[in-house]
Amino acid sequence: MIKILHLSDIHMGSGFSHGRVNPVTGLNTRLEDFVSSLSKCIDRAIEEPVDLVLFGGDAFPDATPPPVVQEAFAGQFRRLADAKIPTVLLVGNHDQHSQGQGGASLCIYRTLGVPGFIVGDTLEVHRIETRNGPVQVVTLPWITRSALMTKSDTEGMSLSDVNQELIERLRGGLERQIRQLDPEVPAVLLAHLMADRAEYGAERFLAVGKGFTIPMYLLVRPCYDYVALGHVHRHQNLNPSNDPPVIYPGSIERVDFSEQKEDKGYVMVELERGRAEWQFCPLPVRAFRTIEVNLSEAADPQAVLLKAIAKREIQDAVVRLIYKIRKEQLDGIDSTALHRALSEAHTYTIQPEVVSSEARARLPELGAGASVDPLEALKAYLANREDLKDIEADLLLAAQSLLEGEAAA
After folding, report:
1. What is the side-by-side strand order in the sheet with 236-237?
2. In angstroms, what CA-CA distances link 285 with 11, 253, 266, 363, 378?
3. Residue 52 in contact with residue 268, Cβ under 8 Å?
């Protein structure tokens, strides 16, 4: 049984705007958060110990990270080399310089000859000898359209024809690698790609260069015992039958507010030929909280706003406060009191949105000529009244009693 730790999308150096400078270390606290999460992954790999670590790509936000960020990343992965744990570093879209034309940030580990480290920047089969036997890893780095087809190749072709030709060329490349696999040895496909069944998140906005969507039939093959993916930040298993498991571990830290509800972590795998057991291992990452309040109907907007903040757990979280307010209500907001109420957060932003008085709460469902059940009409009205949230249930109960009494009479 071969133990594997599969992680991906570290994005070391992202999200500095959500942090602050640590006066003791001089580092941005979000960089320290990312290092802490990566450190916990490496700790687990060494404590088990695992036989192999697979990194699914996107080490940094781009291919030219600042030295302090490179050192933080290298300092953690160096621990795997010291522990003699083989490691495969796959090249993702953010790791490529100039969309793949100028090398990749991770290639320095091959140049330096770091013991036990393999850089996956080409479609290739790697046979790796681990403490518990051999394993085969097919590396499929991020591939752009231009890597498979030239402009002259696509001349006169429709977009659908181009996409189909891209898939066929990739299928041919994968088939050539599959023919090299030893059927008696466990095999893993390690790929950085957009699969057609995946639920996307922040990576849609972070993508550098344009890739293309890979159909599942290229990934679900009997020759693979486990398919380790990178690129999509939301953890998910694309093949519920687990034959083989097709797993995105997701990113190890929250990059921005689009990921505030996602669990972050890595995957532990026990692998043998014909079978893979896996488990998602969540990491205790920093919380992101969004507080949204519509004050346009509030008689006392300051009180409603402070109450909304008090209801949320914001200590040590990255917080954004968004509130809608009318121009004539602005004088009723005490900014000092807001900053004081948000002071427990790790960092916070305040984003007021001034709405027009003419555009106030005219609900389409309550317009002239609309036929609406009275109770439903009340629910629609209360849904737009933040200042009545505390007594909403009582109002609905009272309204229902009145309506029942009227019907009985």
Report:
1. 124-130, 133-140, 187-192, 226-230, 246-248, 236-237
2. 14, 6, 12, 40, 40
3. no
Top pLDDT among 207 and 168 is at 168
Q: Radius of gyration of the chain from Cα atoms?
A: 27
Distances (CA, A) of 280 to 57, 169, 268: 18, 33, 7
Given a cut of 60, whether residue 114 has pLDDT beyond it is yes
Q: What is the DSSP letter of 236?
A: E
Partners of residue 293 on adjacent β-strands: 323
Q: Quick check: 215 and 196 in contact, CB under 8 A?
A: yes
On average, the pLDDT of the chain sits at 88
Q: What mean pLDDT is predicted for residues 311-329?
A: 95
φ, ψ of residue 135 in degrees (nearest 5) = -145, 145
* 352-365 tens-digit pLDDT: 999 976 544 455 55
Residue 99 has pLDDT above 70, yes or no: no
Cα–Cα distances in angstroms (integers) from residue 95 to residues 159, 192, 305, 329, in the given order? 27, 11, 43, 48
Closest CA to 323 of 348, 295, 289, 355: 295
CB 280, CB 291: distance < 8 Å: no
Quickly tell me which residue has 């106030």 as its tokens.
360
Token duo for residue 337: 């009191």
Q: Which residues does 275 contact at the CB level (< 8 Å), separation at least 6?
A: 225
- Cα separation, 256 vs 202, whole angstroms: 8
Closest CA to 273 of 175, 187, 190: 187
Evaluate if residue 137 carries a pLDDT over 90.
yes
Distance of CA 205 to the CA centre of its chain: 11
Give the span between the Cα atoms of 347 and 19, in whole angstroms: 6
The gap between the terminal CA atoms of the chain, to the nearest Å, is: 76
For residues 190 and 120, the answer to whether their CB atoms sit within 8 Å is yes
With CA atoms as reference, report the closest residue to 329 among 306, 359, 361, 352.
352
Q: pTM for the full model? A: 0.82
Token pair of 116, please? 């036990």
Per-residue pLDDT, averaged over 238-245, amounts to: 94
Band (209; pLDDT cuts 50, 70, 90): very low
